């Protein structure tokens, strides 16, 4: 089973406007060296020995191609799959690549959302996924803080507030492993829905669970940050990124 990295990098980034009127969201610069978010993702895959990458692209995909080209500058091999505008949603983007033969039933797919920064051990995720024989394995983390206050309400009256509480349950961090053999089921579900949107985490993973497919949990204490909105971007501390991900830049893969 070949391990491939699948990076979802085609969204329009509506929550990132006005920046995404000019940039593809995953190409927005971060950190003290002002490198694109996607470069940290590519370097993370390379660091863990996963060199075959598939970029699922769409909106402003030229920016991504112009920067990464075939991937050789970063010691990886990049294949680009342009989104089909009639197939909306992250799961449909994967189905589109499957239909083109870029993704196969024999692959182990480490799927990564293009607006997530993390130092998660992708190799260990792949190893757990393959050993467990799961159809999907979702990376989860504890310690997520809700960004708003939570009220305690009794009989219509507010008895107190907990300001930005930390959830006791683990949350998805936007990284998961998929067995290639499950791509047929994803395609079948896509055909069922015809032209409607099919989301990976919102639609397909719940479908697998309800249908009885084995879906595993990979619990991690790794650093991760969802760069999914302009507010999150403005609050991000570049120094924090340097502390957590500087090891990726120290390899100096650029030629």
CATH-level-4 superfamily name: Spore Coat Polysaccharide Biosynthesis Protein SpsA, Chain A
Distance between the termini: 30 Å
Which residue ranges are poorly predicted, with pLDDT under 50 across at least 5 consecutive positions?
none
Helix content range of the residues, please?
A: 25-40%
In one word, what is the shape? Answer: globular
The averaged pLDDT comes out at 86
What percent strand? Answer: 25-35%
Largest sheet: 7 strands, mixed
Quickly count the helices.
8
Number of strands: 13
Q: How many domain regions?
A: 1
CATH architecture: Alpha-Beta Complex
What does the oligomeric state look like here?
single chain
CATH class label: Alpha Beta
Strand order of the largest sheet: 5-4-1-6-11-8-12
What is the third-level CATH name, the topology? Spore Coat Polysaccharide Biosynthesis Protein SpsA, Chain A
Radius of gyration, Cα only, in angstroms? 19 Å
Structural class: alpha/beta
Order of helices and strands: EEEHEHEHEEHEEEEHHEEHH
Describe the structure.
The chain is α/β, with parallel strands linked by helices and 255 residues long. The protein has one domain (2-249): Alpha-Beta Complex (Spore Coat Polysaccharide Biosynthesis Protein SpsA, Chain A), CATH 3.90.550.10. The chain contains eight helices and 13 strands. The strands form four sheets. It has a seven-stranded mixed β-sheet with strand order 5-4-1-6-11-8-12, with helices on both faces. The radius of gyration is 19 Å and the shape is globular. The mean pLDDT is 86.
């Amino acid at each position: 089973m070949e391990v491939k990295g699948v990076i979802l990098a085609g969204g329009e980034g509506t929550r990132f406007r006005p920046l995404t009127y000019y940039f593809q969201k995953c190409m927005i610069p971060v950190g003290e060296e002002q490198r694109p978010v996607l470069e940290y993702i590519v370097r993370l895959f390379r660091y863990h020995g996963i060199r075959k990458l598939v970029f699922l692209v769409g909106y402003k995909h030229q920016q991504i191609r112009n920067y990464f080209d075939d991937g050789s500058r970063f010691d990886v091999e990049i294949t680009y799959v342009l989104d089909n505008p009639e197939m909306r949603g992250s799961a449909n983007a994967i189905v589109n690549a499957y239909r083109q033969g870029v993704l196969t039933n024999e692959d182990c797919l480490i799927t990564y959302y293009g607006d997530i920064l993390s130092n998660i051990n992708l190799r260990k995720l792949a190893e757990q996924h393959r050993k467990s024989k799961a159809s999907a394995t979702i990376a989860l983390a504890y310690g997520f803080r809700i960004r708003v206050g939570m009220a305690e309400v009794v009989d219509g009256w507010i008895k107190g507030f907990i300001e930005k509480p930390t959830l006791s349950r683990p949350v998805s961090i936007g990284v998961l492993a998929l067995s290639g053999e499950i791509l047929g089921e994803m395609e079948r579900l896509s055909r069922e829905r015809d032209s409607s949107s099919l989301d990976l985490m919102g639609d397909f993973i719940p479908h697998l669970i309800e249908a009885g497919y084995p879906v595993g949990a990979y619990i991690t204490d790794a650093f991760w940050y969802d760069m999914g909105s302009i507010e999150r971007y403005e609050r991000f501390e570049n120094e924090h990124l340097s502390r957590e991900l500087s090891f990726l830049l120290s390899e100096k893969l650029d030629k």
